[in-house]
Structure prediction request, 664 residues.
Amino acid sequence: MTRRTTLTEVAQQAGVSEITVSRVLRNSGPIAPATRERVMEAVRALGYVPNRVAGTLASSGSNLVGIVLPSLANIVFPEVLRGAAGPLAKMGYQPVIAVTEYDPAREEALIESLLAWRPAGLMVTGLEHTPRAEAMLRNAGIRVAELMDSDGAGIDIIVGFSNVDAGRIAARHLLSRGYRRFGYVGHGGGATIGKDLRAEKRWSGFAMTLKEAGYAVSDKEIVDAPSSVAAGRYGLAELLARSPGLDAVYLSNDDMALGGYFHCLSQGISIPGQLALFGHNALDVGQVAPQPLSTVRTPRLKIGEIGAKLVCGDAPPQTVDVGIELIEGATA
Amino acid sequence: MTRRTTLTEVAQQAGVSEITVSRVLRNSGPIAPATRERVMEAVRALGYVPNRVAGTLASSGSNLVGIVLPSLANIVFPEVLRGAAGPLAKMGYQPVIAVTEYDPAREEALIESLLAWRPAGLMVTGLEHTPRAEAMLRNAGIRVAELMDSDGAGIDIIVGFSNVDAGRIAARHLLSRGYRRFGYVGHGGGATIGKDLRAEKRWSGFAMTLKEAGYAVSDKEIVDAPSSVAAGRYGLAELLARSPGLDAVYLSNDDMALGGYFHCLSQGISIPGQLALFGHNALDVGQVAPQPLSTVRTPRLKIGEIGAKLVCGDAPPQTVDVGIELIEGATA
DNA sequence: GTGTTGAATGACAGCGCTGTCATGGCTGCC
DNA sequence: GGCAGCCATGACAGCGCTGTCATTCAACAC
Prediction:
């Protein structure tokens, strides 16, 4: 790395002390307009870019916010990130991101290396962490937000919704529409990817609600791959090949459900007459389809947004349930 | 921020000097096994997490890599990010991300604040930057990769493909299939979002190729919103309402094209008999649709991957054209 | 004229780590 | 036995900035 210009050089160029330059750049303390102008000119002339590494070390406070996401393979977590990016930028924070691929061990390692940067706050996904990860989060002395799930206890700030309820809503909707022979298509992780615990919570809410009503899932296909439209299409095809009598299928999310919908379109299976499909998330793409997917809307942008604001603020620890909403759609 | 344990405390606990602890933690220099064990025990006992801010300042070299993306609203850039995340993690680097919303001024500001963290490298999107942004990138003394576009000159490393060619390929395909009455549906930015220069390059390649063949685009609809499935659906509807005689429509990307496809499905417009649709990117979702979209495949994961590797390596400045591929699909 | 204020600036130490050079002890070899 | 050569460890300075306290000086009151 070539030597970059430092505060000292700017100070010399402007004929003032370093601390004065520092104050000008941070708008802190009283500065004579003439001095400010002279300093800014030197900054411009030298193309000076402040070194926040040094600044952070000196002031023990960075503008970094760590964001730990399980995956970037579908649009869900990028949307959370997008929700957070706005407020963070507005408040002068910089997101540092880490992707776990749903692997708790990787999450632990990533949390540690994020913490090494002494971030101002950390946003993580979900409530389940390894004991050491949780200990690190508790002892970090910074705000921590856990996103996307409110089914459980948290560390500091929780911003999410109940995945169990999402499954329940799906089940109740399908029951109320008169469907009785239920299937489920879920996603596994493939070889290198861990379990999607929130999808499992939805599944359990779904199964539980059916059971309470005296019904059950007749058949279940778990595609051994990360969630995707292709996986959903394949999974539904498999499921129907095995169990042609089903009249309603719950899929682990809208990617999967859209895949299932595509399968039905291709095969001439009439939706929802012959088969009902229900997803999760209310992704835009599913709502613009010829028949909007029946699903549950999750406010992902809002989760990122609120999470970011709380993590950078000084509100007390709290759980924000952003709520979810049944989207009746046209596929169930 | 609560006081966190420091190297010094670990050193005291282990009965060695700070530098020894430092060496153990970084596996640098010779360390007696017994000493190493004693140090690691102290680290564990105190829950010590190294402070990379201090480390970076002392050694003038961070493990941060800045990534500047125009948008997170569709899956394209998250895929680039995902492509980069793997190699970066493997090589021990941490991505810091910034989102410009296609605004060059915002890009300039974001590059500056990324540079303030003295990253090891920077990955930006596209070849067009403000003069000051470009100057900062050139003077930063770090590796810079410009991604997603190879139509122009770059600063250091370029990893991308020709968007002009993508437009040309689309035009040639439609021409070769015998279509003659062409339309275009593009996306603008909406109120707060800048121009998508790469989409404009595709458009220009498309229009140019038609012209060379003696044809032209009869009608054009630019939706004043960021690219999305909904925008594509709306845009195609508008275009067809105005110009019902078109027989082939090029859309600015696959999101838009999928929206158009959904519109046709809803309206009973037969594809590609009555109307041909051509997109860009070969998104998974479009390839799993009942009729796979006719489009051009862009290797987005690969771009992120190669960009990350080059930025963190010491290869000479170079342009890597990852190439694109016509996907004939079934919609044109 | 003296003292009081407040605005504007500076001197200095230190944030937590690592690079550099120095040191002590041990092995091996003629 | 003496010395080269290596292993293991340490002392010290300094990375580039900011917090704290001190200083200067003009304006103003009495």
User: Anything to note?
Assistant: Residues 16-20, 23, 29-32, 35, 54, 56-60 of chain A lie near DNA strand C (CB under 10 Å from a C1'). The longest helix of chain A spans residues 197-212. Chain A touches chain B through 62 residues (CB under 8 Å).
